[in-house]
Amino acid sequence: MTPSDVKATLSFSDGSPSIDLPLYKGSIGPDVIDIRKLYGQTGKFTYDPGFLSTASCQSTITYIDGDKGELLYRGYPIEQLATQCDFLDTCYLLLYGELPNEQKQKDFHKLVSEHTMVHEQMQFFLRGFRRDAHPMAVLTGLVGALSAFYHDSTDITNPTHRDIAAIRLIAKMPTLVAMAYKYGEGQPYVYPRNKLSYAGNFMRMMFATPCEDYEPNEVLVRAMDRIFILHADHEQNASTSTVRLCGSSGTNPFAAIAAGVACLWGPAHGGANEAALNMLEDIQRNGGVEKVGEFIKQVKDKNSSVKLMGFGHRVYKNYDPRAKLMRETCHEVLGALGLENDPLFKLAMSLEKIALEDEYFVARKLYPNVDFYSGIVQRAIGIPVSLFTAIFALARTVGWIAQLNEMIGDPEYKIGRPRQLFVGSERRDVPPLAQR
Ligand code: CMC
């Protein structure tokens, strides 16, 4: 990085000498002030819990303009990728920086499909879980377990090894998610079928049984593929930052991705799609569209902890562009299945309309995010609610591994080690037991 001619000057009201801090310009987006030498020069840290103003790395992968509601993967708008490319093209783009030409597309599809099976031993590992375990608990374990199968063969300082770890993860995630689902259902696992598309193969592993094969419905397969594209990466969100921080110690990449899966599970992040659908079902059970006004009142009440799930975003202060695409997919899928009058969809539209006009949401720039509609689409496809976040994890795996590999390949990379403002007890002596 080359610093710009502009410098930031930090001065103190107590007369301590001011210091100049270098400033870097991104290709788009806000400039950053380099504070790496701040502690050395002033003995002070910066304070930014929740990273509201902190760029934790430099990256060339994904760019979000939250005010405009714009999302770019390697410069390409999400709207173009979602309508002109498939998920594997998007994976290739995120990993290598460019869209594949025809030959590279063919080679990449073949490469990924050669790695779709998981070690047979994984079945026995799965058996240790209760059948009713949450799929995200199972997936955290399964992805972590992959590290045991590929430890000696994964040297993270070797770019070829990093690349093959990425391919293995992208190829095996659908198999693992489908296995977690089948295990919960008490059904036999369905092995991957490599001649199918990435999304088609996943849906077959989910819905086929030894008694009946799955006949792919093109609209539903395309919807699933779009869900994957829309969730593939989202710059330095909580789970991606977790993967980067975890991986910064030089750990096994499969273990770092398992940390990302664990982070994604939370309802403020990937778990929001499950929470949003549960919320819609709850309102539906308690009176439906008629009760929307009452529900919104609860959401706005400072003394209640009720949130409108699927609304709001740390970065988007405008309509999430993924939500627009997901809304369109929602119409397509419900249309194809003859479910245009689905009460939950109607309820979601009514909630959205009221919230978009309500002063509380307008003032706080709270708009629907991708999770508001993705749950309805997945439910219509036949995916159980508890599996929604696992599907998000499947799709986000490419983003996690692309970001992890970018970090390890960056000459400026260091182990992540935040500092703190300590406000606890000063040094004190342990009193004898009788005096405590
Ligand atoms: N419903 C009601 N009020 C909300 C909501 C919501 N969904 N989201 C934010 N607010 C209010 C919040 O109470 C606060 O109000 P006030 O200023 O009066 O205290 C204000 O808006 C700012 O919110 P914040 O919590 O400071 O914002 P944040 O950037 O820390 O949180 C968020 C972002 C996504 C965690 C939050 O909007 C939220 O919890 N949304 C619901 C969960 C959700 O849908 N998450 C999915 C995010 S998109 C998928 C992903 O990328 O993981």
Could you explain how this protein is built, in words?
Keywords: Transferase, Tricarboxylic acid cycle. Belongs to the citrate synthase family. One of its GO terms (molecular function) is citrate synthase activity. The protein is mainly alpha-helical and 436 residues long. It has 2 domains: 2-55, Rubrerythrin, domain 2 (Single Sheet), CATH 2.20.28.60; 80-418, Citrate Synthase, domain 1 (Orthogonal Bundle), CATH 1.10.580. The protein has 18 helices and 6 strands. The protein has helices at residues 38-42, 78-84, 87-96, 102-113, 121-126, 135-149, 159-185, 198-207, 218-231, 238-247, 253-264, 272-285, 292-300, 321-336, 343-357, 359-363, 371-381, 388-409, and strands spanning 7-10, 19-24, 32-33, 62-65, 70-73, 76-77. The strands form 2 sheets. The chain has a 3-stranded antiparallel β-sheet with strand order 1-2-3. Strand 5 (70-73) and strand 6 (76-77) form a beta hairpin. The termini are far apart. 39% of the residues are buried. The mean pLDDT is 94. Bound molecules: carboxymethyl coenzyme *A. Carboxymethyl coenzyme *A is lined by residues 234, 237, 268-270, 272, 299, 307-314, 364, 366, 369-371. The site of carboxymethyl coenzyme *A (CMC) has 20 residues, from loops.
